[in-house]
Design goal:
This protein is an alpha/beta fold and about 230 residues long. The chain has helices at about 20-30, 60-65, 80-85, 110-115, 130-140, 155-165, 180-185, 200-210, 220-225; strands at about 5, 30-40, 45, 50, 55, 90-95, 125, 145-150, 170, 190-195, 215.
Length: about 230
């Protein structure tokens, strides 16, 4: 059965990338996905966007960010604190390091540092493939995967993952929409994750095709939808 993965925790119940969201995901999912950026003082924190409220994450200290309400009274979470809180629960760690973002680090130093916190059952991914190669070189024992933009062909992503020594690719679900089983069968040497799936019918089709994991904003609903699919 495909793994059910909470997208940024459990957004159906809690704001994205909050501690409460991840603790909730533990109850209903097999894994959770999160986003990591770094602050002005080099602290890895959970944030999808380069801005939190009116603050640019990379230009703001963690102490300043921790005073912000990111929704429902929740605060910004340190990455290391999140890993401590969830125990052995597996995490899909997306490293945010895109050239168009204000916190882009061409040396990949912060990305490599954050990835070094990954445990054996975690997966580290990024849309920036050079960042992933730096992580792969620095941490050959951790599980890594390439995040794939919707306009990139499946075959290109699979070939790049193999060439880079990665274990997985993570795709927008529409990349597999026309022929999911055929594409999955063409890459049995790789783990295949799909995002962000909130339609139960789509989830069932993808689970039937044999994808490794389905990332969703409502992991409880998707778990119910694919129950019984081997």
């Amino acid at each position: 059965m495909s793994l059910v993965i909470g997208h940024r925790g459990n957004p159906a119940l809690f704001p994205d990338n909050t501690l409460a969201g991840f603790m909730s995901a533990i109850e209903v999912a097999d894994m959770a996905e999160l986003d990591v950026r770094h602050t002005a003082d080099g602290i890895a924190v959970l944030s999808h966007d380069p801005m939190i409220a009116d603050r640019t994450v990379v230009e703001t200290s963690f102490d300043e960010l921790s005073l912000l309400d990111i929704g429902g009274g929740h605060q910004v979470v340190r990455f290391d604190d999140l890993l401590d809180a969830v125990g052995n629960f597996p995490i899909n760690i997306e490293i945010k390091n895109h050239p168009s973002d204000p916190d882009y680090d061409s040396s990949h130093r912060f990305a490599v540092q954050a990835a070094g916190l990954a445990r054996a059952n975690d997966m580290v991914t990024s849309f920036d493939w050079p960042t992933m190669q730096a992580i792969r070189s620095a941490h050959p024992s951790i599980r890594t995967g390439l995040l794939v933009a919707p306009d990139q062909p499946f075959s290109t992503a699979a070939e790049a993952a193999r060439a880079g020594g990665h274990q997985a690719i993570s795709l927008h679900w529409t990349t597999l929409a026309d022929q999911p089983s055929t594409l999955v069968e063409s890459a049995t040497d790789l783990e295949i994750y799909v995002w962000t799936v909130n339609d139960p019918d789509v989830a069932r089709a993808l689970a039937t095709s044999g994808v490794t994991g389905i990332i969703s904003d409502d992991p409880a609903a998707i778990r119910d939808a694919i129950e019984g699919i081997p």
